[in-house]
Amino acid sequence: MSKKKFDDDQIMNKVYEFRVLSHMSQKDLADAVGVSKQTILVMEKGHYSPSLKLAFRIAHYFKVPITDIFTYVEGDGSDGR
Predict the structure, then answer these.
(1) Going by DSSP bridges, is the β-strand pair 10-13/70-73 parallel, antiparallel, or unpaired?
(2) How confident is residue 81, by pLDDT bands cut at 50, 70 and 90?
(3) Residue spans per domain, the chain
(4) Nearest by Cα to 54 from 4, 13, 23
(5) What is the Cα 43 distance to its own chain's centre?
(6) Alpha carbon distance 64, 60 (integer Å)
(7) In the CATH scheme, what is the homologous superfamily, with its name and number, of domain 10-67?
(8) Could you tell me which residue ranges the HTH cro/C1-type domain spans (predicted)?
(9) Residues 3, 53: Cα–Cα separation, whole Å
(10) Distance (Å, whole) CA 27 – CA 75
């Protein structure tokens, strides 16, 4: 039995959607949750998965369950080729 590789797993997010619907800039949200504007930028582009603590802070800020903003997506086991 081989071990499953988790390299393809991702955390998808709707940070951009929640931020825009709230009429906020990236800097506004960054200041509200205690990170840099760059952190929000790379998170929205899908190049950064936040810590669990930051994910909870963002969800708490928008007053929604964490799963409304962040979704765990299990990889398919292929390497994309």
Answers:
(1) antiparallel
(2) very low
(3) 10-67
(4) 13
(5) 6
(6) 6
(7) lambda repressor-like DNA-binding domains (1.10.260.40)
(8) 15-69
(9) 28
(10) 32
What does the alpha-carbon distance between residue 11 and residue 23 come to, in Å, rounded to a whole number? 24
Q: Which residues contact 32 (CB under 8 A, 6 or more apart)?
A: 24, 61
Tokens representing 10 are 């991702």
Question: Distance of CA 76 to CAs 5, 9, 27, 44, Å?
Answer: 10, 8, 35, 23
The reported pTM is 0.83
Can you spell out the DSSP letters for the chain? -PPPP-TT-EEEE-HHHHHHHTT--HHHHHHHHTS-HHHHHHHHTTS-PPPHHHHHHHHHHHTS-HHHHEEEE---S----
Sequence-distant (6+) residues with CB within 8 A of 67 are none
Q: Residue 79 and residue 81: Cα distance in Å, rounded?
A: 6
